[in-house]
Task: structure prediction
Amino acid sequence: MMPELPNRAMESSSLLQEAVRVLEWGRLLELLAARAHSAMGAERCRALPLETDLDAATARLQETAEMVAFEESGEPFPSLSFPDVRGSLGRAVKGATLETHELRDLSIVVGLATEVARYLGRCREQAPALCVVAASLDELNSLHHVKTAIDRCVDPEGNIRESATPDLRRLTHHAQDLKHRMRDRLEVILASRRYAEVLQEKYFAQRESRYVILVKAEMRSKIPGIVHDVSASGATVFLEPRELVELNNSIKVAELEVEREVKRILNELSTLVAGHAPAFLSGLEVLGRLDCIAAKASFSHLVKGRPISLNTRGRIALRQARHPLLVLARERVVANDILLDETVRVLVISGPNTGGKTVTLKIVGLFALMVRAGLQPPCGVDSEMALFHEVYADIGDAQDLAKDLSSFSAHITQMIRLLEQATSEMASRHIASGDQSPPGAATGATRELVLPPKALVLLDELVTSTDPTEGAALAEALLIRLAGLGMKVVVTTHYNSLKALAQTTRGFMNASVEIDVSRLAPTYRLLMGTPGGSSAIDIAGRLGMDESILDHALGLLRREDRALEQMLGDLQEKQRRLDQDTARVVELKVEAERSARMASETAERLRLSEREERKSVKKKLTDELLHARAQVQAIIEGLKGERTLIKAKEAKQRLAEIEGQVRSRLVKPAEAVPIDQLKVGDRVEIVNLGAAGTLLEPPQGKKRVRVRVGEAEMSVPVSGLAGLAEPGDAERSHRVQSDRARRLIAPEEHEVPSVLDVRGRTADETLELTVAALDRAALAGAALLRIIHGHGTGRLKQVLREYLKESPYVATFRPGEREEGGDGVTIAELK
Result:
């Protein structure tokens, strides 16, 4: 049975109850309750309130969204499984003494409140709505002293602790000592030869909390004592020997003292709990509400629900909407877009039977209830739902023989009640808005509706079970009146006149459920803006109806009706093809975007690969340049040792060969311009420095020429130049090379500094600057080079010194002395 909803959800109790009945709202709530972890949470789920205020409904949806986010995170919300202790609290308030397990349950509730408060304290920014709900837990969370008192006396299994009080420990130990003495005495008796022939079994038992031995019935007179029980067969007597009576009495007294102390402790704890009953009850309500929210989040995951926006303008934009109960029952459910903007007051859904018209009605109705209850409906992103204060539904056969109501009478009675209530509410809204015209006086076809709809009306097969002509006329008049009363109406029909009304009347809109013409089978797809034919004769034929009957029916069908059915079928087929083309366009757009993204990623990978390749080529060329410099240095050393004309010619020839090799490697043939073709203003590269500049004088017939590199001018041997072609990006190349030149060459043409400062440079820049500085120092005959690199991470120092080990110019190197800069400086002594 469907649970009763709270009063605020039952403003129009009878009509709303009928709506929630036909929409199977109670079944959905039962499924929701099954997701709760506590009885109180399940209770709240079964009586889920329906909000009528936009802010309140939005807050409920926000709570669910935050809980869903927690469940999907790596640190889910604490489990809200807790006992319902409201009965125990009621007994405590009335003065009853609670049992140990009841006190343990109360301790569990306080502990859970503390855990929830601690969790939300860590996630306050991510869950503002849940923090508002949990704010009332503070009072329960403050009852740590109550939990401490209970935990000190009661263990997690619900048993009284021996250490609860010193008196209880003393009395318990005393009782245990007496029991040990009793067992010792019993073991002596059982082992005694005196009792051997009278004992039925050699073990003892307890009857009425007194220790007894098992004696043969016929031998009971042999041992004086008290009989406490007889076995079912009568063969065994449970006898308390006289010598054990006094010790049993002592044990009984000790146990009574223990029980009295336990009762005193429990009574004291019960009184303590009773004093804080309001805080417990308030906290329990909050925990139950949080458990209900957690159940909503779990249900959302189950039906694949999504966040949805709310509005009060009457706008419905449900994308990829599915019936939640169908999602749970079937593996695959056809999703549909249901789009009704503010201007549409009446949606007329037509099409064949079993095509999904009623399911569409129920989707809209259930979503209208779900968003008011904070449930995420199964739909796509960017969906939107209007907040309706009232939901009315007339779905299915309402025939009631007990009330002498036919199907037609029952439906009309429902419509009369709806109109009476709607007229009353519309009148109050008109008064509140200052509108002086009587409500419903003008029809939806002639009067602009300015007030947003507050009620949703769902009508399945409006005005049937009567003469079709009269029924269609009455249905048309009812829809126009409902639209004029400011309601949002979704109606299913087979009446062609209603389809025509929706096609020609402002505020009305057609929709249809699709049918596969080739198979005459429903596809369960909803086509917005298109009316649909009933296809009754065709479907009857598919189901096996006799052909002669079908032919007779077609003959009886009026020519205009047949033409209309054919037109609607063609229209629906065209709409289906258009939807397919639109879907294909969307797919192609997505594919194009994906291809563009892949192309961009490929270009980025190629760019990175090219950068790495350039680094590799640059390193290779640098190595070759260093090798060439070493060869040059060797030739210079040879000339110093043997200064002859022949040796000088050989050295000159060898230097020319080395220069040609280096130039061929450093300058691409396609980019090189012959020296004799260069003129003032041409771009040239100074090969040994790897820097580009602008020629300031013609090189023809000269050994050295002036070249501007960046802001500096320098005199360069003509043999050390390579002409550069002027590509389209010459200016960009000029800027790059100028910047490199500013880093590599000295500020003055003939000045050869003995200090190089590379602090703040990258490793690659440091090596470039060091190579250039060593080159200039070696050519100038300098004895040493002082390189300042600083301390930093030590990376520059490591790279620099590793290079100096292999440099052909460096004889040795060392860290600087304290006065030279210490280990932040490296002194390179040149060969």
Notes: The two ends are 103 Å apart (CA to CA). Residues 296 and 375 are 6 Å apart (CA to CA). The first helix runs from residue 13 to 22.
